Amino acid sequence: MVKTMTAALKIPHFGYCDEVDLTQLVLLRSELKGLAEARGVRLSYMPFFVKGSHNIGLAMDTPQGLLVPSVKNVQALSVFEIAAELNRLQALGSAGQLGPADLTGGTFTLSNVGSIGGTYAKPVILPPEVAIGALGKIQVLPRFNSCAELVKAHIMSVSWSADHRVIDGATMSRFSNLWCSYLEQPSSMVLDLK
Ligand code: CO6
Asked: What separation in Å is there between the alpha carbon of 38 and the centre of ligand 1?
């Protein structure tokens, strides 16, 4: 941790925060959770957050402290397969048995610190990666829908940090908009399902 975080602090970080309306995703997961459980896999929100095109590192709170195993080639995996892989990594993490194969090769990291608490964060990039996202707790909050009606929404904040030598703010903003759009309308992920 000392070596990695000292190297990380040499990176000129910029931060970018937004909120995402997970109301439809909360409904979808509640429909799929039982189906996944019947096939022996616990389905949380993380597999939906992870579904991109990368080896996604996941900050994991373990008895040994913070570890970042990664789910490899998420673009080739279904949400169910990502959930199964996450269950495997969590079981190994709790048992202190994560090995070098699982702990190396990440290309982008997500830190779901919201599963413990908190809304915003300023996450530190894990070199040689160039960006990281911290996810806040999902909260039920009042929001206006497109018809200007007050609705009950499930809102999660996301705080990105990026290496400003490699990524500019507009690129991060476009990426964040795309990522949020998939989660706000999770059925859109079905279009690109492999
Ligand atoms: N909001 C509300 N509820 C949540 C959330 C959020 N964000 N995330 C998970 N949950 C729920 C989840 O749905 C589970 O509920 P049920 O399925 O309904 O029973 C429950 O909380 C437990 O989920 P769990 O944490 O076991 O599984 P998940 O796949 O979401 O997360 C994990 C796996 C390995 C990421 C997580 O267990 C973990 O270790 N999180 C902490 C990561 C951490 O330490 N980050 C800090 C790194 S340092 O980033 C840093 C800048 C600083 C702050």
From this structure: 22
